[in-house]
Amino acid sequence: MSDAGCPDPAGSVGGFLCRAGQHLRAAAIEAPRLEARLLLAEAMGVEQAALLREPRAPVPPEAATRFGDLLRRRLAHEPMAFLLGRQGFWTLELEVSPETLIPRADSEAIVEAALAAFPRPGARVLDLGTGTGCLLLAVLSEWPEAFGVGVDLAPGAAALAARNAATNGLGGRSAFLAGDWATALSGRFDLVLSNPPYIESAAIPALMPEVAAHEPARALDGGADGLEAYRRIVAALPALLQPQGCAVLELGLGQREAVSALAEAAGLAIRGCHADLGGVERALVLGRQAGLG
């Protein structure tokens, strides 16, 4: 890669940023300059602002080595969140790993819908397929009297979610366990949350490489029609929900009608659907039908 257009010395902060930006741009990374700053700040253990203040400052050898490793991984389209080991969601900062999906802003629609649908601070909350714990922990952060349980098929994901709860001061009001959806649970909950795998199996290879090659397939693959997980979840909901409780499920693009039909066939009532910031119908709100045992 040519160094043309890089005025700062090769071993300086500005030189590293310029050359890394060139490589990232050539790899079709969407925000190459920003990502170069994030990676160099991480490698040097400083804030991004410090890089901008002193562009001609030398990069220490250990930081240069660390930066080179991070840059190579990003050029291979490993997600930035995995490189940094963290991701913001709602008002929280969460640890992430390849055991879990990376929390996305679209999923904040689930939290918003849940808070609107069940405004009771003392709720008992269940999060099925908890991953990082992002949905459950966001709700608990808004309801100081609530308690929640997160379940994930992967023990590593459940352990990571427990660490996130502790780091965010929510460990005393949450518990996490490994299990196959609701099969390990008994009792009823006021609110059930879930962001299940909903991508059709055949569509996964065509996803952007950051997702297809690096995020866990079990958290993406919804089976041949993308609805496999929904069938299991809605079948379990009548036994999981308190009489006045509700569930909020994340939807993929264009899935509202199909998931609503599954829910109604399981004896659940459709209470509404909330869109994300992009206008996609993202959060389906369900409740128990009147008279359901």
Automatic annotation (TrEMBL):
GO biological process: methylation
GO MF annotation list: nucleic acid binding; peptide chain release factor N(5)-glutamine methyltransferase activity
Enzyme Commission code(s) on record: 2.1.1.297
Domain Release factor glutamine methyltransferase N-terminal: 20-85
Residue positions binding substrate: 195-198
UniProt keywords, alphabetically: Methyltransferase, S-adenosyl-L-methionine, Transferase
InterPro entries with a match to the protein in the record: DNA_methylase_N6_adenine_CS (IPR002052), HemK-like (IPR004556), N5-glutamine_MTase (IPR050320), PrmC_N (IPR040758), RF_methyltr_PrmC (IPR019874), SAM-dependent_MTases_sf (IPR029063), Small_mtfrase_dom (IPR007848)
Keyword match rRNA-binding: no
Residue span(s) of domain Methyltransferase small: 119-203
Domain of life of the organism encoding this protein: Bacteria
Catalytic reaction list: L-glutaminyl-[peptide chain release factor] + S-adenosyl-L-methionine = N(5)-methyl-L-glutaminyl-[peptide chain release factor] + S-adenosyl-L-homocysteine + H(+)
Binding site for S-adenosyl-L-methionine: 129-133, 152, 181, 195
Function description: Methylates the class 1 translation termination release factors RF1/PrfA and RF2/PrfB on the glutamine residue of the universally conserved GGQ motif.
PANTHER family found in the cross-reference section: HEMK METHYLTRANSFERASE, MTRF1L RELEASE FACTOR GLUTAMINE METHYLTRANSFERASE
Family statement drawn from the similarity comment of this UniProt entry: Belongs to the protein N5-glutamine methyltransferase family. PrmC subfamily.
Protein name (record): Release factor glutamine methyltransferase
Native source species: Teichococcus aestuarii
